[in-house]
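Try it yourself: sequence plus magnesium ion, in.
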Amino acid sequence: MAMPAGKSPILLICDDEPARHELAVKLGFLGESVITADAGNWRRGVANAHAVEAVLLGKYDTGEMRRLTGELESNLPLAAIVLLQAGEIPDFAGDGLRARMIAEPDATAHFRDLLDVLHKARLCHEYLAGAADEDISRGLAAVQGLIGVSPAIQRIREVVGRLADTELNVLITGDSGTGKEVVARNLHRISGREGKPFVPVNCGAIPGELLESELFGHERGAFTGAVATTVGRFERAHGGTLFLDEIGDMPLNMQVKLLRVLEEGSFEKVGGTRSIKADVRILTATHKNIEDMIALGQFREDLYYRINVFPIEMPPLRDRVEDIPLLLNELMRNIETGGKGSVRFNSAAVSALCSYAWPGNVRELANLVERMAILHPHGIVGVEQLPGKIRASAGQRDIAPEPQEIPQESPMPATSPDMPPVHGMDLKQYLANLEKDFIERALKDSGGVVKQAAERLQLRRTTLVEKMRRHGLKR
Ligand SMILES: Nc1ncnc2c1ncn2[C@@H]1O[C@H](COP(=O)(O)OP(=O)(O)OP(=O)(O)O)[C@@H](O)[C@H]1O
Ligand SMILES: [Mg+2]
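Structure, out:
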């Protein structure tokens, strides 16, 4: 079976040859690279035991289960073990083995279930490979919605956890969509102010002349149009947290007023004289570089020191691609639990997502997942269904995507990650394209060396040369 370059393989152990073949073809269709074996000789095909992401255990002699899983446990230390025959994790499995076993006897009948179990296995493998010494589930429970296994995100979860019960003013920096608000909400949630309001204000979205009254409220008659006394966001946040988002967009005259509130702990409404106590914790965020702004005279240095008692910098998504599969999982789940349909990505598509630069960070990823769920409801998204810019970054050819609904219970497909349109398909042309794709992929994976590509495809060199000529492919 063709193996996409650089992909971690899946080991499929099954003593029933036809069932093994069928499952291997399905896995190939989903873009997985597969090593097939039977229970007696599985070691032979495995070149790099640490690379194996998952073992799928199909049919084998159950009397041998203890021996077989024991062998897998010690020889494939980083692989998830998926039990396709057993409905339960066997009693003899100790904690170590239990943590990496997934029992899903029905996972092979439908593509969606197979994708789900592969996703689970991949997360389990990532955990075993990357974060074995960190209790991710504990971290996740403490800090809600800040998903990620990258060292950067783990560090942020740790810092947020340490800031629990403090009143420090925190400045959260980072590009758009990196999760600044997620962090702010967590800081509020785990502070002693939980249960009191969390009030966000987007300083960039409110016109400068209205910001003061928005923050502090105004007295009736304070200015033309002030027909009633209003309560500002400071007052609304009383006892809780005020989240000043895009603080870098706050005009200088408002910066002076904010600084005064922070220094004196009180404020007056616009047009008012009565001093109101401000019992508010201030969290701020910006995607701008405040230090540059200070140098340019656009931001007050004294305010900066007040709000930046503790800085947290959110890393861009492109610097933590290892978080993408986990984020995808979370975003797909959100769509499902929100009743917005569902969608899955095959592993080639996930690889492509990992090679894209994500200028809009997690928000852009979330938007993509939502868009794919609309375009391909209950479908499987392959590389070709992804937007051109993502395909381009993955080094794919620019083929106009044909949104196609992929039937959930499709018959045995060809071993391609993409599906033909259901109606009016030209089978001959489709198969020819498929052949061309595989040849191109094999050539690419072999660095253009025809002899190696022929070996990968199990073709004679002359046959491959002839096929390349027919498809107009150059070496
Ligand atoms: N680590 C994460 N885990 C899960 N979801 C995340 C994560 N980071 C961001 N998100 C999601 O991505 C979206 C953008 O996050 P958020 O609004 O916190 O970003 P931001 O940095 O405040 O962006 P902006 O600068 O555009 O305001 C939200 O829907 C949020 O739930
Ligand atoms: Mg934000």
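One thing you can check immediately is this: The chain has four domains: 10-130, 137-313, 316-406, 425-475.
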